[in-house]
Structures are given as C-alpha cells and as structure tokens.
From TrEMBL:
Pfam families in alphabetical order: Y1_Tnp
Name of the protein in its database record: Transposase
Gene3D superfamilies membership: Transposase IS200-like
Residues in Transposase IS200-like domain copies: 9-125
Residues in the signal sequence: none
The organism's place on the tree of life at top rank: Bacteria
Length: 228
C-alpha cells in the first residue's frame, strides 16, 4: 500500500515544527531569536500566511500557521525563514552549510476544536521542558504578545477572539485556560499527529479532509497516514 505524503491545505491552520540539522542549536543569543521573529513578522504578510502562535526553542521552532488561498505560501515562508536564518548564522560563525533539517513536520489542525489547544501546547513547551515555571516567563513565545498590553502582530485567532467580548476578558480566560491541567489524551493526540504527519482533529475532521483531498486517511500506529 503506498504511503501518503504530507497533507497541506489552503485556509486551514497547520502545526509546524522545524528542527536544527542533527538537532544542532539554532538560537544562542537574544539577537538570534529577535532576528527570526522579525523575519517571521515580515514574511508572513509577503507570503499571505497567518501566524496564530509560535515558540522558539534553542534547537527548534513551533509555529501555528494558516496559509490563504495560495497553499504555496506556506512552504515558501518556511523556506525563506530557514534561508535567512542560515545566512545570518553562517555569517556570524564564518561557516557554510545547512542549519535546519531539510523537511519540516506539519499537521493540519481542526480549527473549532484544536486551534486553542495547539496554541496552548506550543506556548507551554518551555514549561514542559522545565526552562521556566510559567509560560509568561518565557520571552520567545507568542504568549507574551497574546496577553500583553502592547498591540500584537499575531493574526486574529478566531477561537481566541471568541473567548470574550473585550481584550481583557479574552486575556483573562486564555490565561485561565493555560492554567488548567492538560488531558494526557490531548497531549498525545497533538504530539503524535505532528510526529506522524497525521491530522490534529476528531473523526469528523478526518472525514472532512478525506472529502477535500479525495483520499482515504487511515489512522495507524507509528508512521505516516496511508491511502486505502
């Protein structure tokens, strides 16, 4: 039975992880993180991609991105981000060669059910890694932007916007949401969907995507989704 490649869909959010080549360190100094975020802020508009959440770790990045009608923008954005960061680090270190793994991991996310859950998963990554005690203490994730008083360059997350009628109400409810204990099943679903290139969603969502792409997606054990 043939294996199915990575599923990418226009106008759907995607949970993306890109790692340093051989898990090498990508971000060392404050300037490294700031450079990547400046590029992300600039290039998202250039390629028509929405940014709902992000977290930059020392050797990888988590992003929650949604391309528009042009699906090519998502891959172009990731390629441009990787190329800019590679040139920047190679210049600093007087070296040549690749900085990132050649292929990023991705999972299409069910908006109404898992968009907020994926944002929480991404922004709590430094807490799970025991780098900080609270998400608010980590400066390189979207949490500070989402809950800060300054205008944010994040795109409007419809699930976050639905948390309340005012900015203060939405921030308060999202903060409480991050403070809740996360169900192990939710963690496993998000983590395994990303690792296996599957969908982050329920059976109804799987059926919806099957109808869109005209292929049968079957959840199995380790490995990518398969076509029947």
């Amino acid at each position: 039975m043939p294996r199915m490649g990575r599923v990418l869909l226009p106008n759907y959010p995607h949970h993306i992880v890109q790692r340093g080549h051989n898990r090498q360190v990508v971000f060392v100094e404050r300037d490294d993180y700031e450079r990547y975020l400046l590029d992300l802020r600039e290039l998202k508009d250039a390629f028509g991609v929405k940014v709902y959440a992000y977290c930059l770790m020392t050797n990888h990045v988590h992003l929650l991105l949604a391309p528009g009608d042009s699906l090519a923008g998502l891959s172009q954005l990731m390629k441009a981000l990787a190329a800019r960061m590679t040139r920047y680090r190679n210049r600093l270190e007087g070296r040549s060669g690749t900085l990132w793994e050649s292929r990023f991991k991705s999972s299409v996310v069910q908006s109404d059910t898992y968009l907020l859950a994926c944002s929480r998963y991404i922004e709590l990554n430094p807490v799970r890694a025991r780098l900080v005690a609270r998400a608010a203490d980590y400066p390189w994730s979207s949490y500070a932007q989402r809950l800060g008083s300054e205008p944010s360059w994040l795109d409007g997350d419809p699930c976050f916007d639905a948390l309340g009628d005012t900015d203060d109400e939405r921030r308060s409810r999202y903060c409480a949401y991050l403070g809740q204990s996360v169900d192990d099943g939710e963690l496993s679903l998000i983590r395994e969907a990303l690792q296996r290139g599957q969908l982050t969603g329920n059976s109804r969502f799987v059926a919806e995507v099957e109808s869109l792409i005209g292929l049968r997606i079957e959840r199995r054990g380790p490995g990518r989704p398969k076509i029947e």
